[in-house]
Amino acid sequence: MRSLNQRILFSASLVLFIFIVGTALTLDRAFYDSGQRALQDRMLGKLFLLMGEVEVDRKGSLSMPEELPALIEFEQLNSGVYAFITDQTNTLVWKSFSTLSIPIPSRAPLLEGEKKFEQIMLNDEPHFIYSFAVAWETDGGDYPFTFHVIIESASLEAQIDSYRTDLWGWLGVMGFLLLIMQMLVLHWGLRPMRQVSSELNAVESGVQESVQGLYPVELKRLTDNINSLIQHERKHQQRYRNALADLAHSLKTPLTILQGTIRTEKLSVNMKTVLDEQINRMDSIIQYQLRRAATAGSSPGTRLIALRPVVEKIVNTVNRAHYDKCPQIVIEIGSEFCLRVDEGDLMELLGNLIDNAFKWCRRTVTISAQCVHDDIVLKVEDDGPGVKQEEIGRLTERGVRADQAMPGHGIGLAIVRDIAQAYDGALFIEPGKNIGVSFIIRIKR
Length: 445
Prior knowledge:
By secondary structure, this protein is α+β, with helices and mostly antiparallel strands. It folds into three domains: 4-159, Beta-Lactamase (2-Layer Sandwich), CATH 3.30.450; 212-294; 302-444, Heat Shock Protein 90 (2-Layer Sandwich). Helix content is 51%, strand content 20%. It has helices at 4-53, 154-189, 191-204, 217-264, 269-294, 307-321, 343-360, 389-395, 410-422; strands at residues 55-56, 62-63, 81-87, 92-95, 115-122, 125-138, 141-152, 304-306, 328-332, 338-340, 364-372, 375-382, 426-431, 437-444. The strands form four sheets. Strands 4-3-7-6-5 form a five-stranded antiparallel beta sheet. It has a five-stranded mixed beta sheet with strand order 9-11-12-14-13. Strands 1-2 form a two-stranded antiparallel ribbon. α1 runs antiparallel to α2, α5 (269-294) packs parallel to α9 (410-422) and α6 crosses α7. The protein is rod-shaped.
Protein backbone atom coordinates (compact mmCIF):
# COMPACT_ATOMS: atom_id res chain seq x y z
CA MET A 1 0.00 0.00 0.00
CA ARG A 2 1.44 3.32 -1.10
CA SER A 3 -1.07 5.43 0.85
CA LEU A 4 0.05 6.48 4.34
CA ASN A 5 -3.59 6.80 5.37
CA GLN A 6 -4.35 3.24 4.23
CA ARG A 7 -1.23 1.87 5.95
CA ILE A 8 -2.08 3.43 9.31
CA LEU A 9 -5.77 2.50 9.03
CA PHE A 10 -4.97 -1.10 8.07
CA SER A 11 -2.39 -1.49 10.85
CA ALA A 12 -4.65 0.08 13.49
CA SER A 13 -7.62 -2.00 12.34
CA LEU A 14 -5.54 -5.17 12.48
CA VAL A 15 -4.37 -4.35 16.02
CA LEU A 16 -7.96 -3.52 17.02
CA PHE A 17 -9.22 -6.80 15.55
CA ILE A 18 -6.55 -8.84 17.36
CA PHE A 19 -7.27 -6.99 20.61
CA ILE A 20 -11.04 -7.54 20.37
CA VAL A 21 -10.69 -11.23 19.48
CA GLY A 22 -8.12 -11.74 22.26
CA THR A 23 -10.34 -9.93 24.76
CA ALA A 24 -13.39 -11.96 23.71
CA LEU A 25 -11.53 -15.28 24.01
CA THR A 26 -10.11 -14.29 27.40
CA LEU A 27 -13.48 -13.19 28.77
CA ASP A 28 -15.15 -16.28 27.32
CA ARG A 29 -12.64 -18.56 29.00
CA ALA A 30 -12.89 -16.64 32.27
CA PHE A 31 -16.70 -16.92 32.24
CA TYR A 32 -16.51 -20.65 31.47
CA ASP A 33 -14.06 -21.27 34.32
CA SER A 34 -16.16 -19.14 36.66
CA GLY A 35 -19.29 -21.08 35.68
CA GLN A 36 -17.55 -24.38 36.33
CA ARG A 37 -16.35 -23.22 39.75
CA ALA A 38 -19.87 -22.05 40.62
CA LEU A 39 -21.22 -25.42 39.49
CA GLN A 40 -18.65 -27.25 41.61
CA ASP A 41 -19.65 -25.23 44.66
CA ARG A 42 -23.31 -25.97 43.97
CA MET A 43 -22.67 -29.70 43.58
CA LEU A 44 -20.48 -29.78 46.71
CA GLY A 45 -23.31 -28.13 48.63
CA LYS A 46 -25.70 -30.86 47.45
CA LEU A 47 -23.17 -33.50 48.54
CA PHE A 48 -23.05 -32.02 52.03
CA LEU A 49 -26.86 -31.90 52.16
CA LEU A 50 -26.97 -35.51 51.02
CA MET A 51 -24.49 -36.52 53.73
CA GLY A 52 -26.66 -34.79 56.29
CA GLU A 53 -29.59 -37.06 55.43
CA VAL A 54 -27.60 -40.33 55.60
CA GLU A 55 -27.65 -42.68 58.60
CA VAL A 56 -25.14 -45.53 59.08
CA ASP A 57 -25.54 -48.17 61.80
CA ARG A 58 -22.72 -49.86 63.71
CA LYS A 59 -22.67 -52.67 61.15
CA GLY A 60 -22.04 -50.20 58.33
CA SER A 61 -25.49 -50.41 56.80
CA LEU A 62 -26.49 -47.11 55.13
CA SER A 63 -30.08 -45.86 55.21
CA MET A 64 -31.78 -42.82 53.69
CA PRO A 65 -35.15 -41.21 54.54
CA GLU A 66 -37.97 -41.88 52.10
CA GLU A 67 -38.41 -38.16 51.47
CA LEU A 68 -35.71 -35.53 50.98
CA PRO A 69 -37.37 -32.10 51.29
CA ALA A 70 -34.03 -30.27 50.99
CA LEU A 71 -33.08 -32.28 47.91
CA ILE A 72 -36.38 -32.47 46.06
CA GLU A 73 -34.56 -32.57 42.68
CA PHE A 74 -33.29 -36.06 43.51
CA GLU A 75 -36.90 -37.28 43.72
CA GLN A 76 -38.00 -36.02 40.29
CA LEU A 77 -37.48 -37.76 36.96
CA ASN A 78 -35.72 -35.75 34.24
CA SER A 79 -34.74 -33.11 36.79
CA GLY A 80 -31.21 -33.15 35.46
CA VAL A 81 -29.82 -33.69 38.98
CA TYR A 82 -28.87 -37.18 40.16
CA ALA A 83 -27.13 -38.81 43.14
CA PHE A 84 -25.87 -42.22 44.16
CA ILE A 85 -23.62 -43.70 46.88
CA THR A 86 -21.09 -46.53 46.65
CA ASP A 87 -19.15 -48.38 49.33
CA GLN A 88 -15.48 -49.32 49.54
CA THR A 89 -15.98 -52.18 47.08
CA ASN A 90 -17.56 -49.74 44.60
CA THR A 91 -20.92 -51.43 45.16
CA LEU A 92 -23.98 -49.26 44.74
CA VAL A 93 -25.66 -48.84 48.13
CA TRP A 94 -28.13 -46.06 47.30
CA LYS A 95 -29.38 -44.05 44.34
CA SER A 96 -31.88 -41.24 43.92
CA PHE A 97 -35.23 -41.70 42.20
CA SER A 98 -34.11 -39.36 39.42
CA THR A 99 -31.42 -41.85 38.32
CA LEU A 100 -34.09 -44.09 36.79
CA SER A 101 -33.71 -42.05 33.58
CA ILE A 102 -29.93 -42.58 33.27
CA PRO A 103 -27.48 -45.46 33.54
CA ILE A 104 -25.36 -45.45 36.72
CA PRO A 105 -21.80 -44.74 35.63
CA SER A 106 -18.99 -46.92 36.92
CA ARG A 107 -16.49 -44.94 38.93
CA ALA A 108 -13.06 -45.86 40.22
CA PRO A 109 -12.70 -45.94 44.05
CA LEU A 110 -11.33 -42.80 45.70
CA LEU A 111 -9.16 -42.43 48.75
CA GLU A 112 -10.63 -41.07 51.96
CA GLY A 113 -11.15 -37.28 51.70
CA GLU A 114 -10.47 -37.26 47.95
CA LYS A 115 -12.69 -35.17 45.66
CA LYS A 116 -13.04 -35.50 41.91
CA PHE A 117 -14.89 -33.27 39.43
CA GLU A 118 -15.08 -34.22 35.74
CA GLN A 119 -17.28 -34.29 32.67
CA ILE A 120 -18.80 -37.56 31.42
CA MET A 121 -21.26 -38.65 28.73
CA LEU A 122 -24.60 -40.21 29.70
CA ASN A 123 -27.18 -41.07 27.06
CA ASP A 124 -24.94 -39.21 24.58
CA GLU A 125 -25.36 -36.01 26.56
CA PRO A 126 -22.61 -34.21 28.50
CA HIS A 127 -22.89 -34.28 32.31
CA PHE A 128 -20.73 -33.15 35.20
CA ILE A 129 -20.07 -35.56 38.10
CA TYR A 130 -18.67 -34.62 41.52
CA SER A 131 -17.45 -37.48 43.73
CA PHE A 132 -16.43 -37.17 47.40
CA ALA A 133 -14.97 -40.10 49.42
CA VAL A 134 -15.52 -40.06 53.21
CA ALA A 135 -15.09 -42.45 56.17
CA TRP A 136 -18.24 -42.73 58.25
CA GLU A 137 -17.52 -43.10 61.96
CA THR A 138 -19.78 -45.42 63.99
CA ASP A 139 -19.52 -47.33 67.27
CA GLY A 140 -18.65 -50.38 65.26
CA GLY A 141 -15.83 -48.62 63.34
CA ASP A 142 -15.21 -46.46 60.29
CA TYR A 143 -16.97 -47.32 57.04
CA PRO A 144 -15.86 -45.70 53.77
CA PHE A 145 -18.47 -44.41 51.33
CA THR A 146 -18.25 -42.34 48.15
CA PHE A 147 -21.01 -39.83 47.45
CA HIS A 148 -21.69 -38.89 43.81
CA VAL A 149 -23.75 -35.99 42.42
CA ILE A 150 -24.44 -35.65 38.69
CA ILE A 151 -25.80 -32.52 36.95
CA GLU A 152 -26.54 -32.09 33.26
CA SER A 153 -24.17 -29.60 31.63
CA ALA A 154 -26.95 -28.21 29.41
CA SER A 155 -27.76 -25.45 31.89
CA LEU A 156 -24.14 -24.32 32.04
CA GLU A 157 -23.77 -24.56 28.26
CA ALA A 158 -26.93 -22.48 27.82
CA GLN A 159 -25.55 -19.79 30.11
CA ILE A 160 -22.23 -19.83 28.26
CA ASP A 161 -23.93 -19.65 24.84
CA SER A 162 -26.07 -16.71 25.96
CA TYR A 163 -23.01 -14.99 27.38
CA ARG A 164 -21.03 -15.58 24.19
CA THR A 165 -23.83 -14.15 22.05
CA ASP A 166 -24.00 -11.02 24.18
CA LEU A 167 -20.21 -10.78 24.44
CA TRP A 168 -19.50 -10.99 20.71
CA GLY A 169 -22.44 -8.71 19.92
CA TRP A 170 -21.32 -5.95 22.26
CA LEU A 171 -17.67 -6.33 21.35
CA GLY A 172 -18.63 -6.15 17.66
CA VAL A 173 -20.56 -2.93 18.26
CA MET A 174 -17.71 -1.48 20.32
CA GLY A 175 -15.19 -2.53 17.68
CA PHE A 176 -17.24 -0.84 14.95
CA LEU A 177 -17.55 2.35 16.99
CA LEU A 178 -13.82 2.30 17.76
CA LEU A 179 -13.08 1.82 14.05
CA ILE A 180 -15.25 4.83 13.15
CA MET A 181 -13.57 6.92 15.86
CA GLN A 182 -10.18 5.71 14.66
CA MET A 183 -10.97 6.79 11.10
CA LEU A 184 -12.13 10.21 12.30
CA VAL A 185 -9.01 10.67 14.45
CA LEU A 186 -6.82 9.51 11.57
CA HIS A 187 -8.57 11.90 9.18
CA TRP A 188 -8.02 14.77 11.61
CA GLY A 189 -4.43 13.74 12.41
CA LEU A 190 -3.37 13.49 8.75
CA ARG A 191 -5.03 16.76 7.78
CA PRO A 192 -1.70 18.66 7.80
CA MET A 193 -0.26 16.07 5.41
CA ARG A 194 -3.14 16.59 2.98
CA GLN A 195 -2.71 20.36 3.31
CA VAL A 196 1.01 20.06 2.51
CA SER A 197 0.18 17.93 -0.54
CA SER A 198 -2.40 20.50 -1.69
CA GLU A 199 0.08 23.37 -1.28
CA LEU A 200 2.78 21.47 -3.16
CA ASN A 201 0.33 20.96 -6.04
CA ALA A 202 -0.37 24.71 -5.96
CA VAL A 203 3.37 25.45 -6.04
CA GLU A 204 3.88 23.00 -8.89
CA SER A 205 1.07 24.56 -10.90
CA GLY A 206 2.38 28.08 -10.23
CA VAL A 207 -0.63 29.22 -8.19
CA GLN A 208 1.62 30.09 -5.24
CA GLU A 209 5.36 30.47 -4.86
CA SER A 210 5.98 28.57 -1.62
CA VAL A 211 4.41 26.43 1.11
CA GLN A 212 2.72 29.03 3.33
CA GLY A 213 0.56 27.13 5.87
CA LEU A 214 1.17 26.74 9.60
CA TYR A 215 2.06 23.13 10.37
CA PRO A 216 2.89 20.99 13.43
CA VAL A 217 6.52 20.85 14.53
CA GLU A 218 6.86 17.36 12.98
CA LEU A 219 6.16 18.83 9.52
CA LYS A 220 7.58 22.34 9.91
CA ARG A 221 11.15 21.30 9.18
CA LEU A 222 9.97 19.48 6.06
CA THR A 223 8.01 22.49 4.78
CA ASP A 224 10.89 24.84 5.61
CA ASN A 225 13.33 22.63 3.68
CA ILE A 226 10.93 22.47 0.72
CA ASN A 227 10.65 26.26 0.66
CA SER A 228 14.43 26.60 0.90
CA LEU A 229 14.86 24.16 -1.97
CA ILE A 230 12.33 26.04 -4.13
CA GLN A 231 13.98 29.40 -3.44
CA HIS A 232 17.44 27.96 -4.06
CA GLU A 233 16.35 26.44 -7.37
CA ARG A 234 14.81 29.72 -8.53
CA LYS A 235 17.83 31.78 -7.52
CA HIS A 236 20.14 29.25 -9.16
CA GLN A 237 18.12 29.37 -12.39
CA GLN A 238 18.18 33.18 -12.37
CA ARG A 239 21.95 33.29 -11.73
CA TYR A 240 22.42 30.74 -14.50
CA ARG A 241 20.47 32.84 -16.99
CA ASN A 242 22.25 36.02 -15.95
CA ALA A 243 25.62 34.29 -16.39
CA LEU A 244 24.61 33.07 -19.84
CA ALA A 245 23.48 36.57 -20.81
CA ASP A 246 26.82 37.97 -19.65
CA LEU A 247 28.64 35.24 -21.57
CA ALA A 248 26.67 35.99 -24.73
CA HIS A 249 27.50 39.69 -24.40
CA SER A 250 31.18 38.92 -23.77
CA LEU A 251 31.41 36.67 -26.83
CA LYS A 252 29.47 39.04 -29.06
CA THR A 253 31.96 41.88 -28.62
CA PRO A 254 35.07 40.00 -29.89
CA LEU A 255 33.13 38.61 -32.83
CA THR A 256 31.94 42.11 -33.76
CA ILE A 257 35.52 43.40 -33.56
CA LEU A 258 36.70 40.55 -35.80
CA GLN A 259 34.00 41.34 -38.34
CA GLY A 260 34.96 45.03 -38.31
CA THR A 261 38.65 44.19 -38.65
CA ILE A 262 38.00 41.97 -41.66
CA ARG A 263 36.18 44.78 -43.41
CA THR A 264 39.00 47.29 -42.79
CA GLU A 265 41.95 45.03 -43.49
CA LYS A 266 43.31 44.72 -46.99
CA LEU A 267 42.39 41.12 -47.65
CA SER A 268 41.34 39.40 -50.81
CA VAL A 269 37.62 39.19 -51.49
CA ASN A 270 37.76 35.41 -51.26
CA MET A 271 39.57 35.54 -47.90
CA LYS A 272 37.09 38.09 -46.51
CA THR A 273 34.18 35.91 -47.63
CA VAL A 274 35.63 32.79 -45.96
CA LEU A 275 36.47 34.61 -42.71
CA ASP A 276 33.11 36.37 -42.58
CA GLU A 277 31.28 33.09 -43.19
CA GLN A 278 33.20 31.31 -40.41
CA ILE A 279 32.66 34.18 -37.95
CA ASN A 280 28.91 34.12 -38.69
CA ARG A 281 28.96 30.36 -38.25
CA MET A 282 30.72 30.71 -34.88
CA ASP A 283 28.15 33.33 -33.83
CA SER A 284 25.27 31.00 -34.79
CA ILE A 285 26.78 28.07 -32.90
CA ILE A 286 27.38 30.18 -29.78
CA GLN A 287 23.83 31.54 -29.90
CA TYR A 288 22.42 28.03 -30.31
CA GLN A 289 24.39 26.54 -27.40
CA LEU A 290 23.52 29.49 -25.14
CA ARG A 291 19.83 29.23 -25.96
CA ARG A 292 19.95 25.48 -25.44
CA ALA A 293 21.57 25.88 -22.03
CA ALA A 294 19.08 28.58 -21.03
CA THR A 295 16.05 26.36 -21.67
CA ALA A 296 14.17 26.18 -18.37
CA GLY A 297 12.43 22.87 -18.96
CA SER A 298 9.64 21.43 -16.83
CA SER A 299 10.03 22.45 -13.20
CA PRO A 300 7.84 23.08 -10.12
CA GLY A 301 6.16 26.46 -10.14
CA THR A 302 5.71 26.62 -13.91
CA ARG A 303 2.40 28.32 -14.66
CA LEU A 304 -0.18 27.43 -17.26
CA ILE A 305 0.15 29.68 -20.31
CA ALA A 306 -2.62 30.19 -22.86
CA LEU A 307 -1.35 29.37 -26.36
CA ARG A 308 -3.41 31.67 -28.57
CA PRO A 309 -2.24 35.03 -27.08
CA VAL A 310 1.40 33.93 -27.38
CA VAL A 311 0.89 32.81 -30.99
CA GLU A 312 -0.84 36.08 -31.91
CA LYS A 313 1.96 38.09 -30.30
CA ILE A 314 4.65 36.17 -32.21
CA VAL A 315 2.72 36.40 -35.49
CA ASN A 316 2.45 40.19 -35.16
CA THR A 317 6.18 40.47 -34.47
CA VAL A 318 7.23 38.16 -37.32
CA ASN A 319 4.76 39.84 -39.68
CA ARG A 320 6.49 43.16 -39.15
CA ALA A 321 9.86 41.54 -39.83
CA HIS A 322 8.56 40.02 -43.09
CA TYR A 323 6.45 43.00 -44.18
CA ASP A 324 7.31 42.35 -47.80
CA LYS A 325 5.41 39.01 -47.83
CA CYS A 326 2.27 39.59 -45.76
CA PRO A 327 1.03 35.98 -46.07
CA GLN A 328 -2.42 34.85 -44.99
CA ILE A 329 -2.24 33.64 -41.38
CA VAL A 330 -4.72 30.99 -40.21
CA ILE A 331 -4.78 30.41 -36.43
CA GLU A 332 -6.84 27.38 -35.38
CA ILE A 333 -6.23 27.45 -31.62
CA GLY A 334 -9.05 27.71 -29.11
CA SER A 335 -8.86 29.68 -25.88
CA GLU A 336 -8.93 26.45 -23.85
CA PHE A 337 -5.47 25.32 -25.01
CA CYS A 338 -2.85 25.92 -22.30
CA LEU A 339 0.61 24.53 -21.61
CA ARG A 340 2.60 24.36 -18.39
CA VAL A 341 5.86 25.71 -19.83
CA ASP A 342 8.20 28.60 -19.25
CA GLU A 343 6.98 31.59 -21.26
CA GLY A 344 10.45 32.28 -22.62
CA ASP A 345 10.79 28.68 -23.82
CA LEU A 346 7.37 28.82 -25.48
CA MET A 347 8.23 32.10 -27.23
CA GLU A 348 11.52 30.61 -28.45
CA LEU A 349 9.89 27.40 -29.66
CA LEU A 350 6.96 29.00 -31.51
CA GLY A 351 9.05 31.94 -32.66
CA ASN A 352 11.48 29.67 -34.51
CA LEU A 353 8.73 27.60 -36.14
CA ILE A 354 6.59 30.59 -37.17
CA ASP A 355 9.60 32.56 -38.43
CA ASN A 356 10.70 29.54 -40.43
CA ALA A 357 7.19 29.19 -41.92
CA PHE A 358 7.15 32.91 -42.88
CA LYS A 359 10.51 32.54 -44.62
CA TRP A 360 9.50 29.60 -46.80
CA CYS A 361 5.77 30.12 -47.38
CA ARG A 362 4.27 31.41 -50.62
CA ARG A 363 0.88 32.68 -49.46
CA THR A 364 -0.39 30.88 -46.37
CA VAL A 365 0.81 29.88 -42.89
CA THR A 366 -1.49 27.73 -40.74
CA ILE A 367 -1.00 27.37 -36.99
CA SER A 368 -3.24 24.86 -35.18
CA ALA A 369 -3.53 22.92 -31.93
CA GLN A 370 -5.47 19.87 -30.82
CA CYS A 371 -5.64 17.52 -27.82
CA VAL A 372 -4.57 13.92 -28.28
CA HIS A 373 -5.03 11.92 -25.07
CA ASP A 374 -2.99 13.80 -22.42
CA ASP A 375 -0.90 15.71 -24.98
CA ILE A 376 -1.28 18.93 -26.93
CA VAL A 377 -0.22 18.72 -30.57
CA LEU A 378 0.94 22.02 -32.11
CA LYS A 379 1.24 22.21 -35.87
CA VAL A 380 2.82 24.98 -37.98
CA GLU A 381 2.31 24.50 -41.75
CA ASP A 382 3.46 26.50 -44.74
CA ASP A 383 2.81 26.21 -48.47
CA GLY A 384 6.44 26.61 -49.45
CA PRO A 385 8.69 24.32 -51.51
CA GLY A 386 8.78 21.70 -48.73
CA VAL A 387 11.58 19.39 -47.64
CA LYS A 388 12.77 16.21 -49.30
CA GLN A 389 12.14 12.96 -47.44
CA GLU A 390 15.83 12.24 -47.00
CA GLU A 391 16.37 15.72 -45.58
CA ILE A 392 13.54 15.15 -43.05
CA GLY A 393 15.40 12.09 -41.79
CA ARG A 394 18.55 14.15 -41.26
CA LEU A 395 16.68 16.99 -39.54
CA THR A 396 15.02 14.68 -37.00
CA GLU A 397 18.04 12.44 -36.50
CA ARG A 398 18.95 12.12 -32.80
CA GLY A 399 22.31 13.63 -31.85
CA VAL A 400 22.79 15.96 -34.81
CA ARG A 401 25.01 18.87 -33.69
CA ALA A 402 24.21 22.48 -34.51
CA ASP A 403 27.09 22.83 -36.94
CA GLN A 404 25.85 19.78 -38.87
CA ALA A 405 22.32 21.13 -39.43
CA MET A 406 21.00 22.09 -42.87
CA PRO A 407 21.05 25.74 -43.92
CA GLY A 408 17.75 27.46 -43.37
CA HIS A 409 16.50 24.94 -40.82
CA GLY A 410 19.38 23.72 -38.65
CA ILE A 411 19.91 26.11 -35.75
CA GLY A 412 16.27 27.05 -35.22
CA LEU A 413 14.96 23.50 -35.53
CA ALA A 414 17.68 22.20 -33.23
CA ILE A 415 16.59 24.72 -30.59
CA VAL A 416 12.94 23.71 -31.08
CA ARG A 417 13.82 20.04 -30.75
CA ASP A 418 15.79 20.60 -27.54
CA ILE A 419 13.05 22.73 -25.94
CA ALA A 420 10.42 20.10 -26.78
CA GLN A 421 12.58 17.35 -25.31
CA ALA A 422 13.12 19.42 -22.16
CA TYR A 423 9.36 19.12 -21.57
CA ASP A 424 9.22 15.41 -22.44
CA GLY A 425 7.90 16.26 -25.87
CA ALA A 426 9.08 15.70 -29.43
CA LEU A 427 9.44 17.43 -32.80
CA PHE A 428 8.08 15.80 -35.96
CA ILE A 429 8.48 17.02 -39.53
CA GLU A 430 6.03 15.88 -42.19
CA PRO A 431 5.21 16.89 -45.76
CA GLY A 432 2.24 19.29 -45.99
CA LYS A 433 -1.24 18.23 -47.12
CA ASN A 434 -0.65 19.52 -50.63
CA ILE A 435 2.65 21.40 -50.68
CA GLY A 436 5.04 22.80 -48.12
CA VAL A 437 5.98 21.20 -44.81
CA SER A 438 4.36 20.67 -41.39
CA PHE A 439 6.31 21.08 -38.15
CA ILE A 440 4.55 19.23 -35.32
CA ILE A 441 5.28 19.60 -31.61
CA ARG A 442 3.77 17.13 -29.14
CA ILE A 443 4.00 18.12 -25.45
CA LYS A 444 2.20 16.85 -22.36
CA ARG A 445 -0.48 19.19 -21.01
